[in-house]
Amino acid sequence: MRFVILILAALLVFGCTSSAPEDKTENTPIIPGVPTNPAEECTSDYSFSELGDGIFSKEESLVATVTCAAGKTFVLSVDGKVVDSKTVSENATTPVEFEVPAIRDGTVEVKVDSEGETLFSREWEVAPLGNQETLGAGYESYSFKRWIAMSYDIESQVDVGQVKIYMKRQSSNTQPSSKIVLEIRKDNAGEIGSLVSTKSLPIEATTLSENWIKFDYDEKVKLTPGSYWFVLKIDQTEEISLVSDVVTVHYEIIDKQALGNDYTKSMTLAVDEKTGKASETSWEPLPYDKEFNIVLSYGK
């Protein structure tokens, strides 16, 4: 009897002090919208950032935040044209980043679709590229003896249908064959490079008061991403040794104390006094920081 009691006492002592089995279950992080139990249904969720104001030829960021979207493809379109697509590989909340190209100015439709469903739709306002501020009395002259130029950085491929420039003619007396010429040239390591396009108008298209003079292209000029120079000069072939037709372009002062900038230049040509022929010299920076009123748009 005493032996039985000792056994029972030993069981009570050692049985109560034994440790419980270790729980090896890992803690799974909880992600909003994503089920922790595989049997639960995963509910897709989408939100989008604000789309900032657009500028022709520039790009604007648009970020979609998506949850439970593994295997889904998101398609970005601008004015009905597909410009990008991205596929998500996991259900965890994921940012999907797009760079929206401003392929034309005006009101542009921007959409993001997935599996036939439109998730994002906006009417996006896009401004032309260039300074349209015409206050102030800053004017830079050009003629057959002096050319001026300004460059623009193009971020996304665009078709340029119109370039308008705020300018005026200095004299009512002009040579009948004179033309104002606009050249578009590629940038070559900061220098003015090869010709892309040229467009001219009769000198009479300008007026004695300030006006926007429009260069409309019958066939739009396709510009791929990169830098381009817009060169202004006058093509004058009659009595060039006697009379020089001069046109002035309005500019806005950016910083009059600065030494200049890397996107505006001028060239003073060497003119033969006997023949009146002008030959090119070199492009030089302007005296201080300024920006011409040269504006690019898609056109009609």
Outline the fold blueprint:
Blueprint: H1 2-17, E1 45-48, E2 54-55, E3 59-67, E4 73-78, E5 81-87, E6 94-101, E7 106-114, E8 117-127, E9 139-142, E10 146-154, E11 158-169, E12 179-188, E13 191-202, E14 211-223, E15 226-235, E16 247-255, E17 264-268, E18 270-271, E19 278-279, E20 284-285, E21 289-292, E22 294-297
Parallel strand pairs: 2-8
Antiparallel strand pairs: 1-3, 3-6, 4-5, 4-7, 7-8, 9-16, 10-15, 10-17, 11-14, 11-16, 11-22, 12-13, 12-15, 16-21, 17-20, 18-19
Summarize the structure.
The protein is mainly beta and 300 residues long. The chain has one helix and 22 strands. The strands form five sheets. Strands 9, 11, 14, 16, 21 and 22 form a six-stranded antiparallel sheet that branches.
Mean pLDDT: 88
What's the CATH C level of the largest domain?
Answer: Mainly Beta
How many domains? Answer: 2
H/E series: HEEEEEEEEEEEEEEEEEEEEEE
**How is the main sheet built?**
6 strands, antiparallel
Strand proportion: over 45%
Predict the CATH topology of the largest domain.
Answer: Jelly Rolls
Q: SS-based structural class?
A: mainly beta
| Shape call | elongated
> Counting H and I runs of at least 4 residues, what is the number of helices?
1
Q: What is the number of E strands?
A: 22
- Helix content bin: under 10%
Radius of gyration: 34 Å
* Name of the CATH architecture of the largest domain: Sandwich
